[in-house]
């Protein structure tokens, strides 16, 4: 089918939504669909050939960080042109309730619209004030997808409406076959942490404290750290610091290599994780995960079968879990095997097929296709179970 | 001079109010069309699910009479009792012991796929009904009776 996808953020800037859009588009193309992605980007930026640039994005402070958005008369004209030349069977917008290309596309579209809500964002007061305006956008959306239970709950509470939960996908193959960094994981054991380690809720201090308890007994133990933060801003005891290898901010490819380079991936987050993308990535890489027992993590880790859980915030318990697992390769293999099975349902081709079911539902429920137009279309194209290879 | 200003003022007001009411009526039409289309889509998914369940019941190596009857019931029951019949089918499908039924995997997968589509179609239908009902409650829509031309959409209350 012909699918138009709108990404509100610049594709040349790394970010969760952008990565999701790229992976989804490439997976759908791989499944034989025709996909065009509209996104803000400089004209001269190097982009995949399925991307249509919609002009330069403007940096706007939003929800505690800076979002790069395109919005205005020029964007409006480009969205209109993209929609009319694309003649899409379905339009799939991401984050439609921010002032963005996505919102413009929803207001201009006259065919079936599917929207994906990524973040659990928005203060309820601001949401409540904007409700009548948001309603005009939301009532043009037929199929709603939330990437996490938290994002879905925000929709139910603030935007009035349900939506199906379809998790973020993971490109399992990219992680499963990445080359470990030279010399890693090494003989003495290696643990990894990736993320904004200066943010308290990421729990890096808990990992540091846990390592501080065990490094003396484990002369070869090393910590591989990556993240877009400044190492000078965190307190590190010297004996942990001397075991640390810091990679700084890593690319997607290096992230996969980093995850393949350690014996254990540690996720000591104390809260606020709506899904735990990094967990599924470590699982895809075949690296056993040790995570805090947050609800979201517990769900992804199959209640502790596909990764070890420790009581949230308890660095002594984390230290014990790390020690036990480093000494027990068989237990690590069991966790990794189970994780490999669990992560299959997050693999992009599986996730994309579920998204295609939402597309088919939205097309079916769209009043804009008159009965005759519906009949004249290639019926099989939309109907799973009736000939469509979804 | 004064009179002209008055006339202009009244004309502008009438045009603005008229434009707003026209827009509101068009929006109301759109939301009702949408709810009706979502209803048709949901019903066709329910038929597809019942048909897939009936085929599964017939082709299983062990007899699945209860499932077959529930599927027939969902296909044959018209109007108000439809929800109960669909709920009965949902329950039978939940209770179905796939291993004991010894059915072909393709048939089981067809029923599961149809079930997922019913869930999606019901979600879309509920969203569109809620949007339409909310606009019917709009003050101006009620005062002007704009919704009189449309049948009031209803939720389809099934457990899937």
Strand content of chain B: under 5%
CATH top level of the largest domain in chain A? Alpha Beta
Lateral arrangement of strands in the main beta sheet of chain A: 3-2-1-6-7-8-9
Helix content of chain A: 40-55%
**What general outline of chain B do the C-alpha atoms trace?**
rod-shaped
Strand content of chain A: 15-25%
Reported by name, the CATH topology of the largest domain in chain A is Rossmann fold
Annotated CATH architecture of the largest domain in chain A: 3-Layer(aba) Sandwich
Q: What is the oligomeric state here? A: heterodimer
Helix content of chain B: over 70%
- Compute the number of strand runs of chain B: 0
Largest sheet of chain A: 7 strands, parallel
Q: Compute the gyration radius of chain B: what is it? A: 24 Å
Model description:
The complex is a heterodimer of chains A (390) and B (160). Chain A is an alpha/beta fold and 390 residues long. Chain A has 2 domains: 2-169 and 348-381, Rossmann fold, CATH 3.40.50.2000; 172-345, Rossmann fold. Chain A has helices spanning 16-30, 73-86, 101-108, 124-138, 149-159, 172-176, 204-214, 238-241, 252-260, 277-284, 295-300, 315-326, 329-343, 348-364, 371-376; strands at 2-6, 34-39, 51-53, 58-62, 65-69, 90-94, 113-117, 143-146, 164-165, 190-194, 222-226, 244-246, 264-267, 289-292, 308-310. The longest helix of chain A has 17 residues, at 348-364. Residues 369-390 of chain A have low confidence and may be disordered. With 160 residues, chain B is mostly helical. Chain B has a single domain (2-149), classed as de novo design (two linked rop proteins) (Up-down Bundle). Chain B contains 6 helices and no strands. The longest helix of chain B has 58 residues, at 2-59. The chains are: A alpha/beta (390), B mainly alpha (160). Chains A and B meet through α14 of A and α1 and α5 of B.
